[in-house]
Amino acid sequence: MDTNQYESIVGRYFNCKNDPPLPARSCPVKTKLPGYSGPVLDDFTGEWSCPLCLEIVKVDNDEDSEMYDDDEDEAFDNDEDFTAEGDRIQDQTDEMKIRVTRLRTIEDLVVKLLPINERFATYLSLNQYSIVDTLRILEEAAEVGFVIGTGKPVAPKIVALTTYESGISLTPTQLRMIGLREASITQRLRVLKSLQPNDSAANPFIQKIHFIGKSIGLSSVVLDIIVEQYEEVAPVPNREPDESTRAAAWIFIKGKEAKLKGITKKKLRSVPSVKSNALDRAVESYKTNLQNRIKPVEGVATIDVD
After folding, report:
1. How does pLDDT run across 85-142, given as a tens digit for each residue?
2. Are residues 32 and 83 in the same domain?
3. Over the stretch 232-282, which tens digit does the pLDDT of each residue have?
């Protein structure tokens, strides 16, 4: 007698919804199969679907939406595959691991999308680091449909965000071909559009400081101080145009001034969005411009007034 491995989700008497129905031993919703982890939950809609045929097998009530998680843990069982700027990172922070998960998901999506929507795949590939940066902002803010957690799939978030930023849409058929449902994207697009007025008020440079700092393990308290120090003297010119690299340079300078341990150029270069070959230039540019601000004005005599 076949035993339903996922009875707690789909029920004891679940029948495969494929056409034709698969036997229990071949259905990833009834039996634990290699390469599958059972029904997949869309945290936004509460719908469980089969990872093979994509049919909906159950819809959770609101109170049942925290059934299980797989998003963060399965994608980085080890860090052997993660190499940034030629340096292997032996001790990834939690933030690094989260970013690696999302970058790997993007790589997988690009491979799947190139044959069916080259324009979307190209945009996603060229803008992958900025997309991950924005996604992390949404996740840290726990926006609806972008809450981080195990069992909450990453791909719908990335596709919705890319669609929103690029203006390039995937058809329902194309979404189905990459294992996604149209509803999981359109509902997240509504959330992104509702947040639009708040986006313009945010300072992207400050956001970069926070995310790069978290990537190397800095606490929110330390980062708030570093941001406050920047706001006190801003704007500070810098010859390096890349915003992430400038943010890393500011973190390095203020970290060294405060004699904080663990803030090194090597760690900052390990953050994928930081341009390693430009970090030194950005650091020196900040140092020069900050030094010029505190130099006394030459040729002006101080006059005492009686």
Report:
1. 444 444 567 888 888 889 999 999 999 999 999 999 999 999 898 899 888 888 887 8
2. no
3. 888 888 999 888 999 999 999 999 998 888 899 999 998 888 888 999 999
pTM for the full model? 0.48
Quote the longest CA-to-CA distance of the chain. Answer: 104
Q: Domain of residue 284: give its range.
A: 204-289
Dist CA 206 CA 128 (whole Å): 20
Q: State the Cα angle at 110 between 38 and 150, rounded to 5°.
A: 35
Q: How many CA atoms lie within 13 A of 7 on its CB side?
A: 6
For the CA atoms of the chain, what is the radius of gyration?
24
**What are the CA-CA distances from residue 238 to residues 41, 178, 213, 249, 296 (Å)?**
46, 42, 19, 10, 21
In a domain, 147, yes or no: yes
CA distances from 270 to 85, 135, 150, 282 (A): 6, 19, 25, 16
Is the residue at 297 inside a domain?
no
**How many domains in the chain?**
3
